[in-house]
Amino acid sequence: MARRMCIAGNWKMNTSYHEAMELVDALVTDVMGIHDRDIVVAPPYPYLKPVAEKLAGTNVDLAAQELFYEEKGAKTGAVSGPMLASVGCKYVYVAHSERRQFFGETDETANLRVKAAFAARLVPVLCVGETLEEREAGETMAVVSRQVTGGLSGISEAQLRDMLIAYEPIWAIGTGKVATPEQAQEVHAMIRAKVAERSPEAAKAMRLLYGGSVKPGNAAELFSQEDIDGGLIGGASLKAEDFAAIVKAS
Ligand code: PGA
């Protein structure tokens, strides 16, 4: 079964309002007519609605960079799944390593967020990945495996099929140090095998994205690996031309 490729941008805490509007306009033009893969952008929260309006009727979908796991209430600064869905988000990223590092995200809260995403009919993209220290200590597989198991706890087989996992080695994020296609493939294969312990069918269907310094020049080789079904793109998603080139490389 061929899995549909997915190229997902992550603008993080970048762009002014005007830059965001220009970026989305340029991107929509650059990827027009590409309908055989999923193309996703994730602007900062304040720009979700205006970006959603520009994406209406296009081949580009909207993601949020994070969600809180409760629906509403006294949680200052938090944004819930239903709120994101109501402004047109289709996807939501969960437990990006920067959320784990700066905002106290754990495997347990990641799991609550995956469940909250499904409850709001959003597609979660669970992010996992090891630090440089963990890689050098030979702990990559153990760390990623624990993050996958923790993040997917209690998720149904049907949900597993629909969601995505992004493998992002922390040492490759924003550093220009990309994992080799072999290093990435090795971890992706392990993640798929881990999901297969729960459901072989879901493991075949689930899309696994690679993230960490993906650029137009290295995308095609990464995406040609058997278990890599696209990418989560940070820095290069801030330039329409580069992001479009990565989409075309997939
Ligand atoms: P990068 O970020 O492409 O800038 O390395 C990837 C990510 O954090 O999703």
Q: Could you tell me the number of beta strands? A: 8
Across the major sheet, the strand order is 1-2-3-4-5-6-7-8
Number of helices: 12
Provide the low-confidence segments as ranges.
Answer: none
What is the H/E string?
Answer: EHEHEHEHHEHHHEHHEHEH
How much of the residues is beta strand, in percent?
Answer: 5-15%
Helix residue percentage = 40-55%
Q: Strand pairing plus helix content: what structural class?
A: alpha/beta
Distance N terminus to C terminus? 17 Å
Q: What does this entry look like structurally?
A:
The protein has 250 residues and is of the alpha/beta class. The protein is built from 12 helices and 8 strands. The chain has helices at 17-30, 48-55, 81-86, 97-102, 107-119, 132-136, 140-151, 157-162, 181-198, 200-205, 216-223, 240-249; strands spanning 6-9, 38-41, 60-64, 91-94, 123-128, 164-167, 207-211, 230-233. Helix 1 links the parallel strand 1 and strand 2 (38-41). Helix 5 (107-119) packs across helix 7 (140-151) and helix 7 (140-151) crosses helix 9. The chain is globular, with a radius of gyration of 17 Å. The model has no long low-confidence stretch (mean pLDDT 97). It binds 2-phosphoglycolic acid.
